[in-house]
């Protein structure tokens, strides 16, 4: 598979794929660690009956776990935003390339038409040539038949 075909198919080099997987995985790992801290906080608080003994669990496990869940979520969102921006950048460059190709094709088509001279009346659809109507009947013949019968167009 050559480079253009691989690029058109959206294939990524292996190292880039590994980087993308690791970036997504780190967000999930940080969020899971926050979830574990929150679970530990809940288990610690649930076994204590006095509020004074529950506060250390809430401060260390609860706030820390909540912070890790938020950081993990932010990492996942940032990864998705980066992926979306990369896709949009790739599509914009493809649109620019397509625009360039269309302009070049139009310019070459205009140059070919200038070299060919005047357009051929036989090449226009619906015309059988000079003096012919829609179905190949002569326009002057139709006018003569209408004049004989007294009809107007």
UniProtKB/TrEMBL annotation:
Organism: Parafrankia colletiae
Region annotated Disordered, chain positions: 113-141
Name of the protein in its database record: Transporter
Keyword hit for Transmembrane: yes
Membrane-spanning segments: 25-45, 57-78
Record key words, sorted: Membrane, Transmembrane, Transmembrane helix
Low complexity composition bias: residue spans: 113-125
